[in-house]
Design a protein that fits this description.
Length: 107
């Protein structure tokens, strides 16, 4: 009888540890790939401002990662100051549409 509650407790603690690890793992994913941080995306927007036919692949080799990070930064605006200006948001949304259409055409 004593072993059953002990097993339940250890199972619960291992589940808590797993949940904590997954939460921390999500935080680490953003930090592990600094090439796609907010500052890098904003630098890209500044340097390509006014240019036509900008090739995202020349600046960001992993378009899926770029797409995911931009979406994440756009969602974060709801919880604090906006990450991007209105013009930057407009440009990024156009880029995200192009990326999605590329993904759909490759499927």
């Amino acid at each position: 009888m004593h072993s059953t509650p002990m097993d339940t407790h250890s199972t619960q603690s291992s589940l808590v540890g797993t949940q904590e690890a997954s939460v921390h793992g999500d935080d680490v994913k953003v930090e592990v790939r600094p090439g796609y941080c907010l500052e890098r995306i904003k630098f890209f927007l500044r340097t390509t401002k006014g240019q036509r036919s900008v090739q995202l692949e020349d600046h960001f080799s992993d378009l899926q990662l770029f797409h995911d990070h931009v979406k994440m930064f756009m969602r974060m605006e709801r919880y604090g100051e906006p990450a991007f200006t209105d013009r930057e948001t407009y440009r990024l949304k156009k880029m995200l549409v192009k990326i999605r259409s590329q993904f759909e055409s490759s499927d």
